[in-house]
Amino acid sequence: MYDIRDIRILILVDNQTVGGLEVEHGFAAWIETPDLRILFDTGQSDIVARNADRLHCDLGKADVCVLSHGHYDHTGGLPAVLNLNPRLQLYAHPDCLLERYSIHEGAGPKPVSMPAAARAALEHLPENQINWVLGWERIGPGLFLTGPIPREHPLEDTGGPFFLDREGTQKDWIRDDLALCIQTNKGLIVVTGCCHSGVINTLAFATRKSDEMPIVDTLLGGLHLKSADAARMQATIADLRARSIRQIVACHCTGIDAASQLREALGPAVTTGRSGLTYPSIPGT
Ligand SMILES: [Zn+2]
Ligand SMILES: [Zn+2]
After folding, report:
1. For burial by CB atoms within 10 Å, which of 67, 78, 185, 258 has the most?
2. In this structure, how many other beta carbons lie within 10 angstroms of the beta carbon of residue 106?
């Protein structure tokens, strides 16, 4: 278990920035523990490499790259990352390679799969650098990936009209969606990409699997609540409140309205993540 002061998370790519960095609809975070350097997601383009450079973060030193799921806005930067670091270990669920679409009413199917260049880069990696995550998995000391998260809460869904075919007949449950958990002396740090499994489901699974550590200190990442209805928002707020999470950093796809509802209900524990910000910030340190 780590002292929380020894963990550092730097947001490299987000829909918003503190300034001086490029923005895009996407997410990538740099995570350092005393044992491992992890790139969690890659954004949708090579912005990840340029932002990292500006933040003096050397992607060439990453030991591990985790893909939270296969959507383009989390995987498109993979070729740029592998260019800088051809030897890193990649962790993802195999469904990240599925062809998939987002189909909004009145609009045509929008492809949201992993871009072709990223898929090619992944498929060219030597087998011993690809780690398919099929379930809860330890990837280093005090460091775990959830693997597929059980969808138990009746009000939570994937957060969008996601399908596996252009015609919209096969629902995409985004089974590849996973979160990263770091065990610290203050509780878990849970990092999400889009949280398509739902916030309540994700935290329930993460804490159940870390049964000696039921406390969540920090929740950081995209929470994908922009299409959540009032009942789901209420349930999410009630769950987060009951967990007394010290720090909730709503990033990327959380939705501006949803983030302000969380802030209104839960107070200053909730902040908006932006590229260039570092976490977890501990009061008094
Ligand atoms: Zn997504
Ligand atoms: Zn996303």
Report:
1. 78
2. 5
Which amino acid type is present at position 136? W
CATH of 4-276, one of 3.90.850.10, 3.40.50.300, 3.60.15.10, 3.30.70.380: 3.60.15.10
Measured from the Cβ of residue 170, the count of other Cβ atoms closer than 10 Å reads: 12
Q: Rounded to the nearest whole angstrom, what is the distance from the C-alpha of residue 285 to the centroid of ligand 2?
A: 32
| In the chain, where the domains are located | 4-276
| 102 CA to centre of ligand 1 in angstroms | 10
Give pLDDT tens digits for 242-260: 999 999 999 999 999 999 9
| 162 alpha carbon, closest ligand | 1
Span 96-107, pLDDT tens digits? 999 999 999 888
Pairwise CA distance, residues 188 & 150, whole Å: 19
214 confidence band (pLDDT: 50, 70, 90): confident
Distance from the alpha carbon of residue 26 to the mean position of ligand 1, in angstroms: 9
